Amino acid sequence: MPQEPEPEPGGGRAARRQQFAEAAREERPDLALLCLLLAAEADPALDEAGIDEAQIELDRLAGLLPYSPAGGPGAWARNLAELLGTRCGFGGSPADYRRLESSLLHEVLRRRRGLPILLSVVWMEVARRAGAPVYGLALPGHFVVGFGDPSGTHVLADPFAGGRLLTDEDAELLVAGAAGGRPTARMMAPADPLEIVLRVLNNIRAWAQARPEQSAVQLWALDLSLLLPSHPARLRQERAQLLVQRGEFLAGAAELEEYARVVEAVEPAGALAIRRQAAAARAMLN
């Protein structure tokens, strides 16, 4: 069970964060590595050897797939569903939304349970290693995977449901249920690795926000989000407000002032209000 990280000797957390930042800036970011470095924030026991073991497990699973199956995208999707969904038992249920482990790749590999996006990461990483034409679709509220050409012949699958095959109409129903509209071109475009990592971190933030006693988890999820090359500027304000809530008034005030500098050029009135929040945070020290 992941625990709140303790301070580590030798700058272990700082070194991992540096590795995370560097991995996020690679020309071709390694999705599995980023998800495992993220998981190490939650689980101090996940060291370099544990990260290697998780990568080896993904390699092992990929080795169980038939090589270049006849039948195109549909064959890849069915083989992944048979291996991961049926034989290995990867899947999800509503209860998995209540567990932090459901967002941590090494725990999903161990428990074979997780959120749709983490199960999709497993599907994509195993399929990619086996040579499949695979990609992720970040549908609102429910991540799925695709095989083949996103703009041509393709098949969609839902790893959360054990790899159940989906038609485009099924995908439209998922979008309608979550967002109340039809899928946009952006929704149906393959998600890049950094978009996926940010969405995983957003899920962790949402999990922690609903549990005030887990503010430390929310804080590290924000810290990692801010290390990504592209992220919403509002996350800096959220981090500042969280620091204030945790009683770290000076750090929160400094963060608010930095965010005010970011927004001042486009929203002067908003920047002024943020600076007032910073002053109020400092006043709490008196």
Protein architecture, described:
The chain is α+β, with helices and mostly antiparallel strands and 286 residues long. It folds into two domains: 9-179, no CATH class; 232-283, no CATH class. Helices cover 57% and strands 7% of the residues. The chain is built from twelve helices and four strands, in the order ααααααββββαααααα. The protein has helices at 12-24, 31-42, 48-63, 72-87, 105-111, 116-129, 168-179, 193-209, 215-227, 234-245, 249-263, 268-283, and strands spanning 134-139, 142-148, 154-158, 164-166. Strands 1-2-3-4 form a four-stranded antiparallel β-sheet. Strand 3 (154-158) and strand 4 form a beta hairpin. Helix 2 (31-42) runs parallel beside helix 8 (193-209) and helix 3 packs across helix 6. The longest helix has 17 residues, at 193-209. The two termini are 39 Å apart. Mean pLDDT is 91; it is low at 1-7. This is Protein SirB1 N-terminal domain-containing protein.
Short characterization:
The protein is of the alpha+beta class. Helices cover 57% and strands 7% of the residues. The chain has a four-stranded antiparallel beta sheet.
Shape: globular
The overall pLDDT average reads: 91
The helix-strand sequence is HHHHHHEEEEHHHHHH
In terms of DSSP E residues, the strand content is: 5-15%
What class, by secondary structure content?
Answer: alpha+beta
Low-pLDDT residue intervals, each spanning 5 or more residues: 1-7
Distance between the termini: 39 Å
The number of distinct β-strands equals: 4
Helix content: 55-70%
Oligomeric form: single chain
The DSSP helix count reads 12
The radius of gyration is 20 Å
Pfam families: TPR_9, Transglut_core2
Organism: Streptomyces inhibens
InterPro entries: SirB1_N (IPR032698)
Domain Protein SirB1 N-terminal: 73-202
